[in-house]
Each structure stands twice: as C-alpha cells, then as structure tokens.
Amino acid sequence: MSADSALQPDDRVRVVSTHELMYQRVTIDQPLRLRYELSEEVLTRLAESRVIQKTRDPAALVAALRPLVGSTWTRGQEAVTALRRAVASAGVSWPRGKVFEAAVRKAVGVRHGDGEPQRIGEAYEPDPELREFVHLPLQVDPSDHLRREVHPTAPDAWIDDSKTRVGCEIPSALFYRPELDGEFELLRNLARLETTRVHPPQRDEEQEDGADRPKHLRAQDLHEADSAVELPDAPEDGGALTLCSGGMLVGRPGNWRLLPQGFGEAATSLFVLQPLRGSGQALCEWLNSRKDNGQYPSARDLLDTHVPVDLVTDSEVESLLETVQEGRRALRTTMSGILPNVFGSGERDVQGVRNEIRAAAHEAGLIGELVRPLDDPISRAEWSFPYHAAALSRRYRVSTHPAERKDGLLKLGEGLARVLGVLALTELAASNGFSRNLRKQFRTGATFGTWLWLLDRLEAEGIAPRIQQLATVRDRGNARALLGHIKDFRNTSHHAHGVRASHQLAEDVERLEPHIVRAISAVSWLSGTHWDWVERCEYLDEGSYRIVGLRLRGSHPSWEPFERSSTQPLRPDRIYVDSAPYGAPVDLWPFAVVSLCEECRTRELFLLNEARDDQLTLRSLEEHSLDITYGPPE
After folding, report:
1. Helices (DSSP H) in 95-218: which residue ranges?
2. For 39-93, what is each residue's pLDDT tens digit?
3. Among candidates 529, 528, 515, 558, which has minimal Cα distance to 414?
C-alpha cells in the first residue's frame, strides 16, 4: 500500500477543519416595553421609595395621587403628566428634576409585550428577560441569522456586538450517523424555535380571577388537554413563559405534541417549535423517537437534532401519522374511562364501597382478558385480517398438541402467502391479463411456492399496484423473505423426513413461531385493507350509490355487515379490496369468490387453486371446491 493510500480516510473517519469546531456566541436583545398603571400596590411602593421620602411633604404627595389609583397609560410621558396635574390640583408641589420623574415612571411601569419601548438616549433599553444567547457557526453572518430567524417575530431585536464571543467545542452533530437512507437536515432548517415570552400579570385585589391571564400548558397537561380552555391560569410568580397555539410543537426530548388546530393560545415553560414545512405531524413523531439528547437539553442541542427531511415533509406520511395519532387518542380516551377510582363513586355506605371494590375487581379481571390479545399479533390478526388468514390464525391459537400447533403455524404462513398472492395475481392479470404463463402456475394446484412466485413476478415486472401496500412486502420486516423462510422450514421438516417426537415438534414450534409473528407484523396493513363482498349496489342519484354487503374480516364465518356510500357503481356478488385513500376498490374476480357451498349449504370464501384452460377451481378453508368458467387463456 502506498503512503498516499495509507493516509486516505475510510468511511469510519471524518476529517474536519478547525473552523467546524469554532462558534460565535451572539447576544440578541429586544427593547424593554412598559405600560403604566397606578395601583394600590404601586402607590404603596412609591410612598416607601427614597425619592418620595426626600420630598417636602411625602404624605400630601401620596394623598394627591390616590384619586388616580386604577388608572393606566400607554406612554410614560402621559403617565407623568397625569400624575403632575393631580398633584398640582391638590395644591402640592411636584418635585423638579429628571431623576425624580424617571424614578416615578419606573415605579408605575409594568412589563408588557405591547407596551412603549424604553430608550436610553438614542438607543433602546434592552430587556434582560428577553435576552437570548445564540451559538452560530463561525462562517455564519449574525446579521443574516437575525434577519431570517429573529425579525419575523421580533422585528425590533438587535445584536449587541460588544458581547459577541468566539469559542471552540466538538459538537455532537459531527458524530451523527444517519439511521435511515435519505437526506437529513438540522431541525433548525425545518422548525423555528419560538421565543416570544410573557409574564403573567400580578392579580389585583379588585381584578376578576383569571381575567387577562394566559392559560398555562404544563407537562402533565400536554397529552390531556385538547383546548386551552381546559388549562389552568398561569401562576403569578412562575417566571417568563413562551406563547404557543394550535399547529405548534410543544414539549421536550422524547415527549412532544403537535397542538391541534383551534387549540387556542396558552403559555408554557416547555420548548415551542413552529414547523416551517408541512403540518408537523411527522416531525413530532420523529422527535418523540429521539430520547438521547438528555432530559433538559439546551435550545442549541435541540435545534441541532438531525431530521429525515424526505419523511417529515411528505404529505402522505403526515396523513398516515395523523391516523396513527387518532388511534392513540381513541385508545387513551377509552382507557381513561375504565376502572375509575372506586372512592370517587359518591357511595357513602361502607358496605356499598366494598361492593364497588368487588365489582371493580371483577371488571379488572375481564379487562385484563380483553386487552391481553392486543399484545399478541396472532390474536390481532384473528379479528382484523381478511377471513382466510384470520381463520387460520384462530386455528393455530386454539391448537394444543405440538403436532397440531406446528401444522397450524405452517398453514398460517401459507395462508398469509395465499392472501398476498391473490392480491398480486389480481394486479398482474389487470396489467397483462390472465395469461398462459400465469395459468401454468396453477395447472397442478397452487402451492406455497406459487404465491411467493406471484409476489416476485409482480416486483420483476415493475407494476405499480393499485393496492399500494403490496409494494411494501420487501420493506418493513421484509414479509417476502420471512414467508420464504417459513416455506423452507416446512420443506425441511415435513413428515417425510421421519417421525418426530413431541419434544422435537415443540422445538420446531418454538423456532417457527417468531417468524410467523414477524410476518404478521410486517403485513399489518392487511387489517386496514378490507375485503368487501357486495350484496347489492343501490342507485341514489347521479354519481352517488349505496353499497351493502359483508366485510370478510375476522375469523367468524358469518362476517360483519357493512353499508357505505360510493361515487361509482360496484357489481353485486363480487369481492372488492378497499385501496382507499389511494384509488378505486379493486375487484378480485375470479380469483376470490363468495358462494353458497353445495356440500355444506353455507356461504364460504373460495380462493383460486387450479386453472385448466377456461376452467378455474377455487377452494375454501374447509377444502370444498367451486368450479367456474373464465375465458380462454391469452
């Protein structure tokens, strides 16, 4: 290896320049703003002040000012003039000198965001409580940052150049390795940190409780309140708070919420971010996954968080995450009303309270049984997947003997592949027809491999499926690879390889079940991809129809009735897969059919099994057959 190549850094090394380690600490000030009022508290403070006590007759001066208690002014000179006139009207002399007037003006001045900016000579007087210290890279022009990031919300802010300092550090951003493919940007490019602060006014004795006081959004209220009206008033002595409203992100690392539109205005001690691109739903989800910045990082640490820009600015991702958030809210709302505190029932009799506790204990046991399946993907598939896969999930769940459990797992794996394969076949046939090549795969009956071949074929032909989730079978969890592993496991552990003892079968189940669980989780979208069998389509008016039928969801063969509106007619006695919100429903004919079985005289779901010329044979889970004629091969 040459000396030059030996010095070449590899992908584990990053060479940085000195300037990348340097920063400038910039001080940003805003003017002190005051409005003026004379309250009993202010008058008492004035009476005790040194400038009043030095006057000729302090008591007379204070008495002359008392009629103005409750008065307010927007400008300092107006306040001083009114006070001087009141004193003159009472026949008391007003002390001369700017020092006295300045002291009086300061005493009656109250900090207020819309108040009069204070000046010292020709310059604004800075407000220490609004002062910010910003760390900027050395190559960034502070005036550009001021104009771009600060002036939109604080147009009269300025930089105190005398306080600018240069420092050096090794920022954590240099060591960040992207966890996802795609482009990353710093959070500061996607959201603005809100810094507009308020000081809750002191409550006067005559002031109505809560009047003109901002609502206080605390950490414990973050995920509970849906409106500022539900929040308590901000405390009098809680210090400066940041304003927030609907559409803003509020929280701290690992605990963020996007406030709903129409939330109203509140004040909080938490971080407040204004999304600059998109609604902020995806940005909120990403920030909630970041738990490695410490509990209370600095604003700079927060704004230097790396964000996958392609995801957090994608409108489809935002919409999908809003659905996720709605589900979380619904779950939280439902659970909050279950098993309330038994002592909050209002029951006064001790024996009655005991009965309440007994009832709550029975209810708790029932709730435990009901929610336990929510933690089991196989149980969730049993009540939410299309019928074929759901019924096989139940068969496995209720199986007991190791041989029965192993067989149940293998059939469930093939059932998942069959459901996905039918969808893939529908897309292939819609693109190129049910060709000879496709029919050939079913000449001797469909197998586990047949359905996986169809998934591979759909990808190889580059077809953009109408059921868009089909394009993800190699993405999250890689369902295709997991199903292939399950098929290989079946082929190498078949009974033809010899009789296996119960403990060997139990070991097979233990090795196989995690793959089934991961495969179910990887295609969890099947829960929302409904298979609807249309009984009738009713015409309402031009472009408006009512669809009535059965939803083939869950393991119960009776299925559940549904009724919904549609902007297009659907053919009766057909199964449609709902591809919303992406497009029109997809007709599964002739690869999936609901029909009255001639053998058992019950309605069953039949899926394609064989194809010979124009004759198709479909089979149900009960191994009943249905023959239909479907055109000559192309």
Report:
1. 98-108, 142-145
2. 888 888 888 888 788 887 888 888 888 888 888 888 888 888 888 888 888 888 8
3. 515
